[in-house]
Structures are given as C-alpha cells and as structure tokens.
Write a structure and sequence with these properties.
Order of helices and strands: EHEHEHEHEEH
CATH topology: Rossmann fold
Strand order of the largest sheet: 3-2-4-1-5-6
Number of domains: 1
Mean pLDDT: 93
Strand content: 5-15%
CATH class: Alpha Beta
C-alpha cells in the first residue's frame, strides 16, 4: 500500500492574529491557492489514486475538494483524521459548531495521558489521539493492500502517523512539522523478516515554490502597472 498524507491548506485558525480559539474554520484565500496549486501539481507526482480519505473538519474538506477534482474521484470522510482535541475519549467527534475552544496550558507530549482539552469532560488525551490515528492506518493496511491512498488531514495527524510507524513511546522527543499542503509518503510492504514500513519522503512542497514564484510575478506586474499611472 502507498499511503500519502497531505496537510490542509492555510486556514484562518493558522493565522497568528487568530484570537477565537479552536473553531472549525475554512481556508484563507492563500489556503485556497495552496490547495489549487497542490491539485495542479499532484498528478505529475502520483499518477493514479485509488481512494481519497479526508478529515471531517472544514479546512481539510475544502482542500480535498481540489484534489478530488484533479483525479475525478469521490472523497471518503473519516472522523479519525481530525486534529487532536476535536474528538472525545471514545474517538467520536465533537460537533463542528461546538468544539472545545481552549486547549490545555501544557503541550500534549509533555503530559500524553492528560486531556488536551480539560475544559470539557470526556476530552481525548494525546494517547487517545494516537490510538485513533493508528486504528485508521492499520485499517488502511487491511483494506487497501495493493492500492494508492491519499489522506487529507492535519499536522498533528501526520506527526502521529510518524509515532505509529516508527513505534515511538508515549513521551515523544522530536516534533515533526508540516507545511500547509505538504505531502508525505509512507509505503507498507508485507515483509515477514524485515521492516514493514518505508518512509519515502516528508513535506514535499514544490507546488508552493511555484505558487510563491507566480505570486511574486503577479505582485511585480501590479507594481509596474501602478508606476505607469492612469
């Protein structure tokens, strides 16, 4: 199985000036451009995709819509791909219009067995989060053994996928960071006497370089037009 994880495009909750806490927000204008640039580039990197899974949060759904159009296939939404803190202890999602708005004042990896959203009863811990992401990954292994799978999700999900395939203990010592719309590729191979997982690459963002170049050219053109006057 070839398993590709994609982080969503820039969302309003990613902005430094965002002050409304954890809410289910869509993509910014830049995030939409990032997702479109990804969808235009992705078929040159992954020729065939058998199935697209996606988090049920709005920023991931909007990102996956561009990818689905690029491959002309549907999207299967999965609550296990939601960002940390947006599900309960039993892995069921909090309603998108009533999410826990505040996270704990400690980092999840500092206290992996403590709720990350202690303001609500029944909030998940980092270990519950890792369990639900691990359940998703193992189900993909069983359901799509010879297929190409894309999972559109969140930075925390991708980081937790690393924990799962590398068999990291509960007290993580290294963060794994992702850019918006970054692409990571894991492969599962059923070798009985050697490692089953292969990491081919992490956080590919060639499409963002092209986007930045295009925006720079656009800004230069607008500046040149403005300097000419009416």
């Amino acid at each position: 199985m070839q398993l590709y994880f994609i982080r969503h495009g820039q969302s309003h909750v990613n902005l430094k000036e965002w002050a409304n806490g954890n809410t289910d927000e869509g993509l910014t204008e830049l995030g939409q451009r990032q997702a479109l640039a990804l969808a235009e580039w992705l078929p040159s990197e992954i020729e065939r995709v058998d199935v697209i899974y996606c988090s049920t949060m709005l920023r991931a759904r909007e990102t996956s819509a561009h990818i689905a159009r690029a491959y002309n296939i549907g999207v299967q939404f999965d609550d296990r791909l939601r960002e940390i803190g947006n599900n309960r202890l039993d892995h069921t999602p909090w309603p998108n219009d009533s999410l826990p708005t505040q996270y704990a004042d400690y980092w999840a990896s500092e206290r992996p067995f403590a709720p990350v959203t202690p303001v609500v009863d029944g909030g998940e811990t980092m270990m519950h989060f890792r369990t639900r992401v691990g359940l998703f990954i193992e189900e993909m292994v069983q359901r799509h053994p010879e297929q190409v799978v894309i999972a559109v999700c969140h930075g925390g999900v991708i980081e937790t996928a690393f924990d799962h395939v590398f068999n990291v203990g509960p007290f993580r010592h290294c963060e794994v960071w992702d850019s918006n719309t970054g692409l990571s590729f894991f492969e599962y191979v059923n070798h009985p006497r050697r490692e089953s997982w292969r990491l081919h690459y992490h956080n590919r963002i060639e499409h963002l370089r092209r986007l930045e170049w295009g925006l720079s050219r656009l800004e230069q053109g607008e500046t040149a037009s403005a300097s000419k006057g009416p």
